[in-house]
Amino acid sequence: MPTAEANPALETARLTLRPARLGDADGLFALYSDPRVVRYWAWPAWTSIEQAHDYITRMAPKPDSLPLVAARRVEGDVVGTVSLYQINAQNRRAELGYALRQALWGQGYASEMVGAVLAHAFDALGLHRIEADIDPRNDASARLLERMGFLREGYLRERWIVNGEVQDTGLYGLLVQDWRARQA
Ligand SMILES: CC(C)(COP(=O)(O)OP(=O)(O)OC[C@H]1O[C@@H](n2cnc3c(N)ncnc32)[C@H](O)[C@@H]1OP(=O)(O)O)[C@@H](O)C(=O)NCCC(=O)NCCS
Questions:
Q1: Distance of CA 144 to the CA centre of its chain
Q2: Which of 37, 60, 62, 113 is least surrounded, with the fewest CB atoms within 10 Å of its CB?
Q3: Atom of ligand 1 at shortest range from CA of 147
Q4: d(CA 89, CA 97)
Q5: How far is the CA of 11 from the centre of ligand 1 (A)?
Q6: In the structure, how many helices (H) and strands (E) does the chain have?
């Protein structure tokens, strides 16, 4: 479904959401090398800029994934990532992931980028359901999802092992009709 051509940059009040570029390596490294950002993430903190280069190479939009970098429109700096992945055309569903630079937490940037991607997913891509898999201890992430209208639909035990730590999953879901009702 998504291709770079089919998915021009998404603009919000303060952010541009677009595919990763080579010049984003330093910004992405700053994001994913921060232990506070990856505390509940599916991989450990990056330790080498090579991991940013590798990420940029791998993270081109594909039929089943739309990984985007969030850059501030005025400052131009990379502040986060927001992605749809496991896009399933038959069932019109996808999974959602997001991360924001710690210095910018608590200012609504994550709500802005996630809101824009949800609108794109439902309105432009025609998806029916979006899912998010988060560590149940990740309060900021749970608050963000609930702010967007997601419901917690499940609790899956010991689903991840990151850096030797076994982690549970809180599974959240948002349906297109619930999203539309909230926009009305
Ligand atoms: C999850 C994460 C993106 C949430 O970031 P955040 O800064 O809390 O979310 P927002 O940018 O939407 O900001 C919301 C907060 O800012 C406040 N805020 C200030 N201005 C705001 C505005 N204009 N709009 C919305 N909220 C605003 C809200 O009241 C809210 O505060 P609260 O959480 O105390 O209720 C962030 O904690 C993060 O990057 N964590 C690490 C990565 C991660 O765990 N990702 C999830 C795994 S999939």
A1: 11
A2: 60
A3: 12
A4: 18
A5: 19
A6: 5, 8
Predicted structure pTM score:
0.95
Point out which residues pair with 92 in neighbouring strands: none
Q: What is the pLDDT of residues 101-131, one digit of tens each?
A: 999 999 999 999 999 999 999 999 999 999 9
Residue nearest atom 9 in ligand 1 by C-alpha distance: 110
One-letter amino acid at 33 equals S
Instruction: Work out the number of other CB atoms within 10 angstroms of the CB of residue 120.
Output: 18
Q: Are 18 and 83 in contact (CB under 8 A)?
A: no
Q: For 26-44, what is each residue's pLDDT tens digit?
A: 999 999 999 999 999 988 9
Question: Both tokens of residue 103?
Answer: 């210095």
Query: Can you list the domains of the chain with their CATH numbers?
Result: 10-131 (3.40.630.30)
Helix (H) or strand (E) holding 100: strand 93-100
